[in-house]
Amino acid sequence: MRAKISYAITAAVLLFYFILVGSRGVMLIQTGTVLTVTFGVAVLILPVIGLWFLWKNTQFVRRANALAAELDAEGGLPVDELKRTPGGRIDRDSADEVFAKRKAETEAAPDDWRSWFRLAIAYHDARDTPRARKAMQRAIALHDGKPMEA
């Protein structure tokens, strides 16, 4: 729940920023000189890109959460078996051990979205966010019936 609140606050702040920047772009365009219109259009591009990125990221998070809920209902969410340091951080060797197990499961069932979901969690625990995201995207695609290339 804490992550959802943080995400909502971040999205709200970004939306406010996009509106603020967009209004400045419109003001520049309304000035009417060649230079200010050029700058105004350039300034308007930034909120458009930001909104697109926020939209795509929100879709990804919602779809990943839907998979997590479905897997939880099936009783298939991975159990947290990771060792932790006294400070509460995940022990790297423990994360590598669990990752190896999840990778083997995924190699044994490459068309199963559940194994890709669990692999994404293992990547995340191993602090490999780009690969975690790619694995989750693959899980989403397989769940939706759209197999992806490796």
What is the gist of this entry?
The chain is mostly helical and 150 residues long. It has helices at residues 2-31, 34-74, 92-108, 113-125, 129-143.
Number of strands: 0
User: What percentage of the residues does DSSP assign to strands (E)?
Assistant: under 5%
Q: Give the SSE string.
A: HHHHH
Poorly predicted segments: none
- Portion of residues in helices? over 70%
Query: Number of helix segments?
Result: 5
Q: Please, what is the average pLDDT? A: 89
**Largest sheet composition:** none
Please state the overall shape, judged from the principal axes of the Cα atoms: elongated
End-to-end C-alpha gap: 33 Å
Question: In words, what does this structure look like?
Answer:
This protein has helices at about 1-30, 35-75, 90-110, 115-125, 130-145. By secondary structure, it is mainly alpha-helical. α2 (about 35-75) crosses α5 (about 130-145) and α4 (about 115-125) runs antiparallel to α5 (about 130-145). The model has no long low-confidence stretch (mean pLDDT about 90).
